Amino acid sequence: MKKTTLAVSAIAALALSGCIEDTGDEVASGVGTPAVGSASDLSAFEGARAGQAEGGIRALGYEAIRSEGLTTYWFNRSTGACARVTTSEGRYSDITELPSEDC
Fold first, then answer.
1. How far apart (Å, rounded) are the C-alpha atoms in residues 40 and 25?
2. What is residue 38's three-state secondary structure?
3. Is 38 exposed, middle or buried (0-12, 13-18, 19+ CB in 10 A)?
4. Distances (CA, A) of 47 to 50, 88, 89
5. Which of 2, 11, 20, 65 is deepest in the core (most CB within 10 A)?
6. Within a domain: residue 1?
7. 36 is in which domain, residue-wise?
8. pTM recorded for the entire structure
């Protein structure tokens, strides 16, 4: 009985060791565009008040690289992610993930 329990435990451990959780935190294909839902994805900020959301974007590791009118380009040096964020009426009206070379 003891050998059977040990064998079953070993098989279960071996089967579970092959399971890898994909959290989507890595930048897809190395092009600097984060996967939706990843830690670098800014799509959740669309519609948010610009003044309040800016701190959240910075907390994700992004820094404002340049601004053109009401559009700001944000770059995350650690992931290579780049995003163009447009503000309208005090809110982030459009957030577009771009290749890192666009920042």
1. 7
2. coil
3. middle
4. 8, 9, 10
5. 65
6. no
7. 25-102
8. 0.63
Residue 2, domain member (yes or no): no
- Identify the H or E element spanning 6: helix 2-17
Answer whether residue 11 is part of any domain.
Answer: no
The verdict on residue 62 lying in a domain is: yes
CB neighbours of 25 closer than 8 A, spacing ≥ 6?
A: 35, 38, 39, 40
Question: Which pair of tokens denotes residue 43?
Answer: 């799509």
* CA distances (Å), origin 88, targets 6, 10, 70, 79: 63, 58, 7, 27
Indicate the number of domains in the chain: 1
Q: What 3-state DSSP class applies to 55? A: helix
Show pLDDT as tens, one digit a residue, over the chain (103 residues). Answer: 444 333 333 333 333 333 333 444 443 344 444 444 456 679 899 999 998 899 999 999 999 999 999 999 999 999 999 999 999 999 999 999 999 999 9
Q: How far is CA 85 from the centre of its chain?
A: 15
